[in-house]
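Subject: design request, 271 residues
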Protein backbone atom coordinates (compact mmCIF):
# COMPACT_ATOMS: atom_id res chain seq x y z
CA UNK A 1 0.00 0.00 0.00
CA UNK A 2 1.18 3.51 -0.86
CA UNK A 3 0.30 6.81 0.79
CA UNK A 4 0.20 9.92 -1.42
CA UNK A 5 0.07 13.15 0.60
CA UNK A 6 -0.89 16.49 -0.90
CA UNK A 7 0.15 19.40 1.34
CA UNK A 8 -1.86 22.57 1.78
CA UNK A 9 -4.08 24.51 4.15
CA UNK A 10 -7.79 23.70 4.68
CA UNK A 11 -10.59 26.15 3.93
CA UNK A 12 -11.91 28.00 0.89
CA UNK A 13 -9.78 31.04 1.69
CA UNK A 14 -6.61 29.07 0.90
CA UNK A 15 -7.92 26.94 -1.96
CA UNK A 16 -6.27 28.92 -4.77
CA UNK A 17 -2.97 29.64 -2.94
CA UNK A 18 0.39 28.61 -4.36
CA UNK A 19 1.00 26.87 -1.01
CA UNK A 20 -1.95 24.58 -1.83
CA UNK A 21 -0.62 23.12 -5.05
CA UNK A 22 -0.26 19.77 -3.23
CA UNK A 23 -3.99 19.75 -2.46
CA UNK A 24 -4.74 20.53 -6.13
CA UNK A 25 -2.63 17.59 -7.31
CA UNK A 26 -4.27 15.26 -4.76
CA UNK A 27 -7.75 16.25 -5.97
CA UNK A 28 -6.85 15.54 -9.60
CA UNK A 29 -5.29 12.15 -8.75
CA UNK A 30 -8.48 11.07 -6.97
CA UNK A 31 -10.65 12.31 -9.84
CA UNK A 32 -8.61 10.84 -12.69
CA UNK A 33 -8.15 7.40 -11.14
CA UNK A 34 -11.78 7.13 -9.97
CA UNK A 35 -11.01 6.77 -6.25
CA UNK A 36 -13.73 6.42 -3.65
CA UNK A 37 -15.22 9.52 -1.98
CA UNK A 38 -13.23 11.70 0.38
CA UNK A 39 -13.71 10.74 4.04
CA UNK A 40 -12.70 12.80 7.05
CA UNK A 41 -10.28 10.69 9.03
CA UNK A 42 -6.80 10.89 10.59
CA UNK A 43 -7.06 14.69 11.01
CA UNK A 44 -7.54 15.06 7.30
CA UNK A 45 -9.42 13.86 4.23
CA UNK A 46 -8.65 10.40 2.83
CA UNK A 47 -9.65 8.70 -0.43
CA UNK A 48 -8.84 5.12 -1.44
CA UNK A 49 -8.21 3.58 -4.84
CA UNK A 50 -5.86 1.51 -6.96
CA UNK A 51 -3.06 2.54 -9.28
CA UNK A 52 -0.76 0.25 -11.28
CA UNK A 53 -2.10 -2.77 -9.40
CA UNK A 54 -1.35 -1.36 -5.93
CA UNK A 55 -3.71 0.00 -3.29
CA UNK A 56 -3.19 3.73 -2.81
CA UNK A 57 -4.41 6.14 -0.15
CA UNK A 58 -4.49 9.85 -0.92
CA UNK A 59 -4.38 12.16 2.09
CA UNK A 60 -4.97 15.90 2.48
CA UNK A 61 -4.04 16.84 6.08
CA UNK A 62 -6.41 19.40 7.63
CA UNK A 63 -4.14 20.32 10.52
CA UNK A 64 -2.80 23.35 8.62
CA UNK A 65 0.57 23.12 6.94
CA UNK A 66 2.84 23.40 9.98
CA UNK A 67 1.29 20.33 11.66
CA UNK A 68 0.94 18.08 8.60
CA UNK A 69 3.13 15.39 10.18
CA UNK A 70 0.51 14.63 12.82
CA UNK A 71 -2.02 13.55 10.21
CA UNK A 72 0.53 11.63 8.12
CA UNK A 73 1.83 9.84 11.22
CA UNK A 74 -1.65 8.61 12.17
CA UNK A 75 -2.19 7.06 8.73
CA UNK A 76 1.20 5.34 8.75
CA UNK A 77 0.66 3.83 12.16
CA UNK A 78 -2.89 2.66 11.43
CA UNK A 79 -2.11 0.99 8.10
CA UNK A 80 1.50 0.11 8.96
CA UNK A 81 2.78 1.75 5.79
CA UNK A 82 6.60 1.97 5.53
CA UNK A 83 7.90 5.54 5.28
CA UNK A 84 9.62 4.54 1.99
CA UNK A 85 6.14 4.06 0.44
CA UNK A 86 5.06 7.63 1.18
CA UNK A 87 4.93 10.23 -1.62
CA UNK A 88 4.50 13.89 -0.63
CA UNK A 89 3.42 16.58 -3.11
CA UNK A 90 4.40 20.12 -2.08
CA UNK A 91 5.16 23.60 -3.38
CA UNK A 92 8.79 24.51 -4.05
CA UNK A 93 10.09 28.08 -4.07
CA UNK A 94 13.48 27.13 -5.49
CA UNK A 95 12.09 25.77 -8.77
CA UNK A 96 10.68 27.91 -11.60
CA UNK A 97 6.91 27.77 -12.08
CA UNK A 98 5.86 24.54 -13.78
CA UNK A 99 9.10 22.67 -13.10
CA UNK A 100 9.06 19.42 -11.14
CA UNK A 101 11.64 17.29 -9.33
CA UNK A 102 11.46 14.00 -7.44
CA UNK A 103 13.70 13.67 -4.41
CA UNK A 104 14.15 10.76 -2.04
CA UNK A 105 14.92 11.68 1.59
CA UNK A 106 17.00 14.77 2.35
CA UNK A 107 16.24 17.98 4.22
CA UNK A 108 13.04 20.00 4.37
CA UNK A 109 14.52 23.09 2.70
CA UNK A 110 12.65 25.42 5.04
CA UNK A 111 9.24 24.01 4.11
CA UNK A 112 7.21 23.76 7.32
CA UNK A 113 4.98 20.95 6.08
CA UNK A 114 8.03 18.78 5.33
CA UNK A 115 9.63 19.81 8.60
CA UNK A 116 6.58 18.47 10.47
CA UNK A 117 6.55 15.18 8.54
CA UNK A 118 10.29 14.70 9.17
CA UNK A 119 9.71 15.16 12.91
CA UNK A 120 6.75 12.77 13.15
CA UNK A 121 7.56 10.11 10.55
CA UNK A 122 11.18 10.28 9.44
CA UNK A 123 12.87 11.50 6.25
CA UNK A 124 13.01 8.48 3.94
CA UNK A 125 9.98 9.39 1.84
CA UNK A 126 9.74 10.70 -1.72
CA UNK A 127 9.09 14.42 -2.18
CA UNK A 128 7.52 15.68 -5.40
CA UNK A 129 8.73 19.27 -5.55
CA UNK A 130 6.36 21.44 -7.57
CA UNK A 131 7.89 24.72 -8.67
CA UNK A 132 6.02 27.95 -7.90
CA UNK A 133 8.98 30.29 -8.38
CA UNK A 134 10.60 32.72 -5.93
CA UNK A 135 9.44 36.34 -5.66
CA UNK A 136 13.07 37.46 -5.57
CA UNK A 137 12.92 39.04 -2.12
CA UNK A 138 12.81 37.08 1.14
CA UNK A 139 10.42 39.66 2.62
CA UNK A 140 7.87 38.85 -0.08
CA UNK A 141 7.95 35.05 0.32
CA UNK A 142 5.05 34.86 2.80
CA UNK A 143 2.72 36.86 0.57
CA UNK A 144 3.87 34.90 -2.49
CA UNK A 145 3.13 31.41 -1.16
CA UNK A 146 -0.17 32.48 0.40
CA UNK A 147 -1.18 34.37 -2.72
CA UNK A 148 -3.39 32.86 -5.41
CA UNK A 149 -2.15 31.67 -8.77
CA UNK A 150 -2.94 34.19 -11.50
CA UNK A 151 -5.62 33.47 -14.08
CA UNK A 152 -3.00 32.96 -16.77
CA UNK A 153 -1.15 30.46 -14.55
CA UNK A 154 -4.35 28.59 -13.74
CA UNK A 155 -5.27 28.16 -17.39
CA UNK A 156 -1.67 27.70 -18.52
CA UNK A 157 1.16 25.68 -17.01
CA UNK A 158 -0.62 24.93 -13.68
CA UNK A 159 -3.50 22.95 -15.18
CA UNK A 160 -1.12 21.05 -17.48
CA UNK A 161 1.24 20.24 -14.58
CA UNK A 162 -1.53 18.99 -12.28
CA UNK A 163 -3.05 16.91 -15.06
CA UNK A 164 0.36 15.48 -15.97
CA UNK A 165 1.10 14.45 -12.38
CA UNK A 166 -2.18 12.52 -12.15
CA UNK A 167 -1.69 10.95 -15.57
CA UNK A 168 1.88 9.78 -14.97
CA UNK A 169 1.54 8.81 -11.28
CA UNK A 170 1.58 5.06 -12.10
CA UNK A 171 5.26 5.47 -13.00
CA UNK A 172 5.97 6.67 -9.47
CA UNK A 173 4.05 3.78 -7.97
CA UNK A 174 6.21 1.26 -9.85
CA UNK A 175 9.38 3.15 -8.87
CA UNK A 176 10.28 4.78 -12.20
CA UNK A 177 10.95 8.28 -10.86
CA UNK A 178 13.05 9.41 -13.86
CA UNK A 179 10.39 8.49 -16.42
CA UNK A 180 7.76 10.25 -14.31
CA UNK A 181 9.76 13.49 -14.26
CA UNK A 182 10.56 13.27 -17.97
CA UNK A 183 6.98 12.59 -19.06
CA UNK A 184 5.46 15.37 -16.95
CA UNK A 185 8.15 17.84 -18.06
CA UNK A 186 7.39 17.08 -21.72
CA UNK A 187 3.70 17.70 -21.13
CA UNK A 188 4.31 21.08 -19.49
CA UNK A 189 7.01 22.17 -21.96
CA UNK A 190 6.85 20.06 -25.12
CA UNK A 191 10.24 19.61 -26.86
CA UNK A 192 10.80 21.81 -29.91
CA UNK A 193 10.33 20.00 -33.23
CA UNK A 194 13.57 19.12 -34.96
CA UNK A 195 14.37 20.84 -38.25
CA UNK A 196 15.13 18.19 -40.91
CA UNK A 197 18.80 18.20 -41.85
CA UNK A 198 20.10 17.78 -45.40
CA UNK A 199 21.32 14.18 -45.80
CA UNK A 200 25.11 13.81 -45.92
CA UNK A 201 24.97 12.08 -49.29
CA UNK A 202 23.02 15.00 -50.75
CA UNK A 203 25.49 17.46 -49.27
CA UNK A 204 28.39 15.47 -50.71
CA UNK A 205 26.70 15.39 -54.12
CA UNK A 206 26.22 19.14 -54.04
CA UNK A 207 29.83 19.67 -53.03
CA UNK A 208 31.07 17.39 -55.86
CA UNK A 209 28.83 19.13 -58.37
CA UNK A 210 30.07 22.49 -57.19
CA UNK A 211 33.64 21.27 -57.53
CA UNK A 212 33.03 20.07 -61.06
CA UNK A 213 31.45 23.33 -62.06
CA UNK A 214 34.33 25.20 -60.57
CA UNK A 215 36.78 22.93 -62.40
CA UNK A 216 34.93 23.35 -65.68
CA UNK A 217 35.37 27.08 -65.39
CA UNK A 218 39.15 26.71 -65.30
CA UNK A 219 39.51 23.95 -67.90
CA UNK A 220 39.67 26.21 -70.99
CA UNK A 221 42.78 27.86 -69.64
CA UNK A 222 44.38 24.53 -68.88
CA UNK A 223 43.39 23.13 -72.25
CA UNK A 224 44.81 26.20 -73.93
CA UNK A 225 48.07 25.74 -72.09
CA UNK A 226 48.28 22.09 -73.17
CA UNK A 227 47.44 23.03 -76.73
CA UNK A 228 50.11 25.71 -76.75
CA UNK A 229 52.62 23.19 -75.46
CA UNK A 230 51.70 20.77 -78.26
CA UNK A 231 51.98 23.50 -80.87
CA UNK A 232 55.36 24.49 -79.50
CA UNK A 233 56.53 20.91 -79.90
CA UNK A 234 55.32 20.82 -83.47
CA UNK A 235 56.68 24.23 -84.30
CA UNK A 236 60.13 23.43 -83.06
CA UNK A 237 60.11 20.14 -84.89
CA UNK A 238 60.86 18.43 -81.66
CA UNK A 239 60.39 14.84 -80.82
CA UNK A 240 57.35 12.75 -80.49
CA UNK A 241 54.81 15.47 -80.84
CA UNK A 242 55.72 16.02 -84.50
CA UNK A 243 55.95 12.35 -85.33
CA UNK A 244 52.53 11.67 -83.85
CA UNK A 245 50.99 14.53 -85.74
CA UNK A 246 52.55 13.63 -89.13
CA UNK A 247 52.34 9.84 -89.00
CA UNK A 248 48.62 9.60 -89.74
CA UNK A 249 48.96 11.65 -92.97
CA UNK A 250 51.94 9.57 -94.17
CA UNK A 251 50.02 6.37 -93.66
CA UNK A 252 46.99 7.76 -95.43
CA UNK A 253 49.08 8.96 -98.43
CA UNK A 254 50.82 5.58 -98.62
CA UNK A 255 47.56 3.73 -98.60
CA UNK A 256 46.16 5.98 -101.33
CA UNK A 257 49.20 5.38 -103.57
CA UNK A 258 49.00 1.63 -103.15
CA UNK A 259 45.30 1.67 -103.98
CA UNK A 260 45.94 3.75 -107.13
CA UNK A 261 48.59 1.34 -108.35
CA UNK A 262 46.30 -1.64 -107.78
CA UNK A 263 43.49 0.01 -109.74
CA UNK A 264 45.78 0.95 -112.59
CA UNK A 265 47.07 -2.58 -112.84
CA UNK A 266 43.55 -4.02 -112.69
CA UNK A 267 42.24 -1.80 -115.49
CA UNK A 268 45.43 -1.94 -117.58
CA UNK A 269 46.23 1.70 -117.08
CA UNK A 270 49.70 3.08 -117.20
CA UNK A 271 50.75 5.43 -114.52
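Subject: RE: design request

Done. Sequence follows.
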Amino acid sequence: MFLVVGLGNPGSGYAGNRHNIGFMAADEIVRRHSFGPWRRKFQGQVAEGEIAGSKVLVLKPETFMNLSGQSVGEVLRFYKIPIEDVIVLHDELDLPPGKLRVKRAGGHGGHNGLRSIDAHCGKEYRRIRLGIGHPGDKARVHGHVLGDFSKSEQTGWLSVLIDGIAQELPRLIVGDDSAFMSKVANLVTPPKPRVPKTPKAEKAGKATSAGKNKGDATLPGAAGADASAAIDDIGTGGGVGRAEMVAPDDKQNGASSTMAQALAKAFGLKK
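The CA atoms of residues 8 and 20 lie 4 Å apart.
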